[in-house]
Amino acid sequence: MLRQINELYEETIKAGKKVSEILISYIGYDHLKSELNNHKDRPEWLDRLKVTENIRGVQIVPQE
């Protein structure tokens, strides 16, 4: 999950867009939490993360 979010985040930035928020499902968030426990660095996008129940996986919301 961590790798997937990093890739989506980088693709959005490379496309010249700013990230407003990153939506993640509850199940995805559980996976991400366990990955972050084993990861030393804190990702820069972590503050934009929002857990929601109406999606599957993860979704990047670009800033308009």
Tell me about this structure.
The protein is built from two helices and three strands; from the N terminus they run H-E-H-E-E. It has helices at 2-14, 26-37, and strands at residues 19-24, 49-51, 58-62. The protein has a three-stranded mixed β-sheet with strand order 2-1-3. Helix 2 links the parallel strand 1 (19-24) and strand 2. The longest helix is centred in the N-terminal third of the chain and has 13 residues, at 2-14. The chain is globular and about 30 Å long.
Entry keywords:
64 residues, alpha+beta, three-stranded mixed beta sheet, 2 helices, 3 strands, 39% helix, globular
Structure classification: alpha+beta
Low-pLDDT regions? none
**DSSP summary, beta strand count:** 3
Q: Tell me the major beta sheet.
A: 3 strands, mixed
Mean pLDDT: 93
Number of helices: 2
- Structural Rg: 11 Å
Question: How would you summarize this macromolecular structure in one to three sentences?
Answer:
The chain is α+β, with helices and mostly antiparallel strands. It has helices spanning about 1-15, 25-35; strands at about 20-25, 50, 60.
List the helices and strands and how they pair.
Blueprint: H1 2-14, E1 19-24, H2 26-37, E2 49-51, E3 58-62
Parallel strand pairs: 1-2
Antiparallel strand pairs: 1-3
